[in-house]
Write a structure and sequence with these properties.
The complex is a heterodimer of chains A (402) and B (450).
Chain A (H helix, E strand, L loop, with lengths): L1 H25 L3 H20 L11 H9 L24 E3 L13 H12 L6 H8 L10 H10 L3 E5 L4 H9 L4 E9 L3 E13 L4 E6 L3 E7 H9 L5 E5 L4 H7 L5 H15 L5 H17 L3 H14 L5 H4 L2 H8 L3 H12 L6 H13 L3 H14 L5 H9 L4
Antiparallel strand pairs in A: 1-4, 2-7, 3-4, 3-7, 4-5, 5-6
Chain B lengths: L10 E2 L5 H5 L6 H9 L17 H7 L3 E2 L25 H4 L3 E6 L2 E7 L7 H5 L28 H12 L3 H20 L15 H9 L6 H15 L36 E5 L10 E2 L3 E6 L2 E6 L5 E10 L2 E9 L7 E10 L2 E8 L3 E8 L2 E10 L10 E9 L2 E6 L2 E7 L6 E8 L6 E12 L3
Parallel strand pairs in B: 1-2
Antiparallel strand pairs in B: 3-4, 3-9, 5-19, 6-7, 7-8, 8-19, 9-18, 10-15, 10-19, 11-12, 11-18, 12-13, 13-14, 15-16, 16-17
Helix pairs in contact in B: 6-9, 7-8
The chains are: A alpha+beta (402), B alpha+beta (450).
């Protein structure tokens, strides 16, 4: 009986090894098919072994108490002068733009790939090799900022603007006028959890309440409902990028009702403020985060820090600062250096190549007297991205060389 | 192939003075001194061990020098050459799937060809059709067709590609594994025993027959069918909403004239875009001196021996084009470089545009089996340098003019002797590094002209 059991195990093992081995050798490109899963598995195992949290660290109790006690009064929206709203023309209830080249992203390449698709609409020839090579000197860089993408578009001859506080209405109007919209959104992948993601809005349908997007990850003509896109967009304060032929800038501004960046920021702040009273759960955390970002944009650092405290208290995804490191600057400007270190350490423990996080940790370290630590952080940040010049400047001020 | 080397005026490497050596083409006085310091030589190929003397220079020198000391060598067996199949014998899809490696650093005229050489260009170019790519999911979760030359039906292409790419040990291993699995299954189900049983169970024959009788179709066909089934099973992309733009709606397509001031301006239709997810036609294989394979979304070229060069072609060719690709040099040192191959008519007639580890580019023509430097190593500030650096290399071939770009910046241009149509490819050369690895990614080409 015992030998039969052993025999069964041996035979079973042989079968598994044989079939598995055969699969490896016969299936084409198995390294790439398996490799990324292995990376995910390894990252997940590492997170589990090191017991890395799923959310960013919450603020110190004293800070939260202070923040909660004073949450309402200071969190006022920036007081930019309201810009006159122009009368907007009517637009059709559905529209589809065509003429895009689908670009399938490589790992961590949604920004360059989406930008390549958006540029293709305007006649640009190229691939994500061109955009990624320019935007990500470190191929493992996990994020490209909207401003960097806009700068690339301008460098190759297009007009580009980056705004926050976009709405479903904004996206529809731009598409109706012939301008596809790059939106900075998020998604939740089963194996990877919450992540930032860029997608390109190229159509809409009011009857179906849905957008058509060209997505570097999910494919061409990927359909999302208005509600789903708005939900995913919230994590990035409804940030969007519009590319346009320089001769058509007036059209774009007309669609945006003449609102400048300040007006957009004000609207974004007002919206975030309103949403803090109506949303719950993760969406509420994002609303507080957005309010913090809008307040930071107007350099109201103490109030912005309080808003971020609220977001952290509810719980922010651990990848949040990969894409939006503004809380680090905010806490630094508010003199809360330990918060900078806590957030930076937690982020860098999971990915050590986020140059903006390294930069701000360096600033906090120097403020706390750790000159060597600051220098090390800035050296690392400067090596990661030659386009990000702040670390080199900081090193120069420190008397060190990158 | 018989080489006709000049017999007169050869210098003896062991007796020539430094001044005499310095008179040889390509040799500097310093290098001549290095050669003298390296004496004695027992064979001319030992020149390759002289620091600073590169393979290309050796090629120029080897017919002008000799080693005077007589060698009592046993008669050498004729060198084995891999016979090349005539184009007519080559299966069409395989024939455009070429991988050539230099056999040895000192024997450039000998190549190991792991697949058939390119067929005559006319055979390849005429039926060129870009097939519609099939839908696929990101990161290669499912196999899908890339823009592929529709010379033969897709299923047949996949079959042939699988056989070609994984021929030899892989298929044998697969057959062995399946056979082992079948035997193990028979054991497990009690249908097969090591003890001879004169009275087998009555139900055994049917099961044993099922386990032991192979399918009439060859393995590759089975695999092809499985792949085809996978392709068929892939979900089609979400159907786009019906276009409803009408004449009174705003313009749905832009009409702007685009000027980016890069080499991409004015290019025409895309010839191919190779992201290696999954890989198109690239012959992969290993020799004693190199290993070329697809790895996690890149074409990896591993050059095992310093002084060796290895290259691979894909199945596309053109005469006037813009060709670009991302190049990443692994752990590298001075003299290591890699890059693009273009206008490759065969192993002996092609162009190489490469970038070295220390940020110098080089344009080399190989004509009639001889290397000629159109632009020798030239430093450019546009390049990222060092181990692990990534650079975007591009060449714009327009008639006789060859323009070179690094990271989307123009760096140089030359006038070629005569334009020619040829295949695209990639290469790596190890100057001093053992096991130099070079990765190429996102290789694309566009046609020029109407």
């Amino acid at each position: 009986m015992k030998s039969t059991g052993i025999k069964s195990w041996v035979i079973g093992s042989v079968i598994v090894l044989a079939v598995g081995g055969a699969s490896f050798w016969v299936v084409p490109n198995w390294p790439e098919r398996v490799g990324w899963r292995w990376q995910q598995f390894w990252a997940g195992t590492r997170r589990a072994v090191l017991q890395l949290p799923d959310t960013l660290p919450t603020p110190a109790v004293a800070a939260v108490a202070t923040s909660a006690a004073t949450a309402t009064p200071p969190l006022t929206a920036p007081t930019a002068t309201p810009e006159a709203a122009a009368a907007l023309p009517a637009y059709p209830d559905q529209m589809e733009l065509t003429g895009f080249t689908q670009v399938w992203q490589k790992v961590n390449n949604c920004g360059p790939a989406t930008l390549a698709m958006a540029l293709s609409y305007w006649g640009w020839k190229g691939t994500q090799a061109n955009t990624a090579n320019a935007l990500k000197p470190d191929p493992n860089d996990r994020n490209v900022a909207p401003a960097e993408m806009a700068a690339y578009a301008q460098r190759v001859g297009l007009g580009a603007l980056v705004r926050q506080g976009g709405t479903v209405e904004t996206a529809k109007r731009l598409v109706a006028a012939g301008f596809p919209v790059v939106v900075e959104t998020s998604l939740v992948l089963p194996e990877q959890g919450w992540e930032g993601h860029y997608t390109l809005v190229t159509g809409y349908s009011d009857p179906h309440q849905q957008f058509t997007t060209q997505d570097a990850l999910r494919g061409p003509n990927f359909v999302q409902t208005y509600a789903d896109l708005e939900r995913d967009w919230r994590a990035f304060n409804f940030t969007y990028i519009v590319l346009y032929a320089p001769t058509r800038e007036a059209e774009v501004l007309n669609v945006l009702a003449g609102a400048g960046p300040a007006g957009d920021a004000q609207r974004a702040a007002e919206r975030a403020r309103a949403e803090t009273a109506t949303l719950s759960g993760q969406d509420l955390a994002f609303a507080w985060f957005n309010l913090g970002s809008s307040l930071a944009a107007s350099a109201d650092w103490p109030a912005a820090a309080q808003a971020y405290d609220q977001a952290r208290q509810i719980g922010l995804p651990w990848r949040m600062l990969w894409y939006q490191p503004t809380p680090l600057e905010t806490y630094f400007q508010a003199g809360r250096y330990q918060d900078v270190l806590d957030l930076a350490d937690a982020t860098l423990a999971q990915a050590d190549n986020i140059e903006e996080v390294l930069y701000w940790r360096g600033r906090a370290r120097l403020a706390l007297g750790d000159r060597d630590g600051a220098s090390a952080d800035w050296q690392a940040a400067a090596a990661l991205n030659r386009n990000f010049t702040a670390p080199a400047q900081a090193l120069a001020e420190l008397g060190a060389t990158p | 192939m018989t080489e006709t080397a000049p017999r007169a005026a050869k210098l003896d490497l062991n007796t020539a003075t430094p001044a005499e050596l310095a008179g040889l083409p390509g040799l500097t006085p310093a290098l001549a001194e290095q050669i003298v310091a390296y004496r004695p030589f027992t064979a001319t190929k030992e020149l390759l061990r002289v620091p600073g003397l590169e393979f290309e220079l050796f090629e120029q020198l080897k017919r002008r020098v000799k080693v005077g000391r007589p060698r009592a060598a046993a008669p050498r067996a004729p060198r084995k050459r891999q016979p090349r199949r005539a184009p007519a014998e080559a299966p069409p899809p395989v024939a455009v799937h070429v991988h050539v490696n230099a056999a040895a650093p000192y024997e450039t005229t000998t190549f190991r060809t792991t697949a058939a050489p390119p067929p005559p260009i006319s055979e390849v170019i005429e039926p060129l059709v870009i097939a519609e790519p099939a839908p696929r999911t990101p990161f290669g979760r499912q196999l899908a067709a890339t823009p592929t030359r529709a010379l033969v039906p897709l299923g047949a292409q996949v079959t042939t590609a699988l056989f070609e790419s994984y021929a030899g040990p892989r298929v044998v291993f697969a057959l062995f594994s399946f056979t082992l699995a079948a035997i193990a299954l028979a054991f497990a189900t009690g249908r097969l025993s090591l003890r001879w049983d004169p009275a087998p169970p009555t139900s055994a024959p049917a099961v044993i027959a099922a386990a032991a009788t192979p399918t009439l179709e060859p393995l590759a066909t089975q695999v092809s069918q499985a792949v085809a089934a996978t392709l068929a099973a892939q979900p089609s992309p979400t159907a786009p909403p019906e276009p409803t733009a009408t004449a009174d709606l705003p313009a749905a397509t832009p009409t702007t004239a685009f000027i980016s001031n890069s080499g991409l301006d004015g290019v025409g239709a895309q010839i191919f875009n190779e992201t290696f997810i999954p890989a198109g036609y690239w012959s992969v294989g290993e020799t004693d001196f190199s290993n070329i394979f697809v790895d996690t979304g890149t074409l990896a070229i591993l050059v095992k021996t310093p002084g060796s060069i290895a290259w691979a072609f894909n199945g596309y060719s053109a005469e006037d084009f813009y060709f670009q690709g991302l190049l990443r040099l692994g752990a590298c040192q001075l003299g290591d470089y890699g890059g693009l191959i273009f206008r490759g008519q065969d192993d002996n007639n092609l162009y190489l545009f490469g970038l070295s580890c220390d940020g110098r580019y080089r344009l080399v023509e190989r004509a009639g089996g001889e290397f000629r430097f159109l632009i020798d190593f030239t430093f450019t500030p546009e390049a990222s340098t060092g181990s692990g650096a990534t650079n975007l290399l591009a060449v714009r071939a327009e008639g006789r003019k060859l323009s070179l770009y690094i990271n989307d910046q123009f760096v140089n241009a030359v006038e070629d002797v005569a334009p020619s149509r040829g295949f695209f490819g990639a290469f790596a050369k190890a100057g001093t590094t053992t096991n130099l690895r070079v990765d190429l990614d996102d290789l694309s080409a566009w046609s020029l002209g109407p």
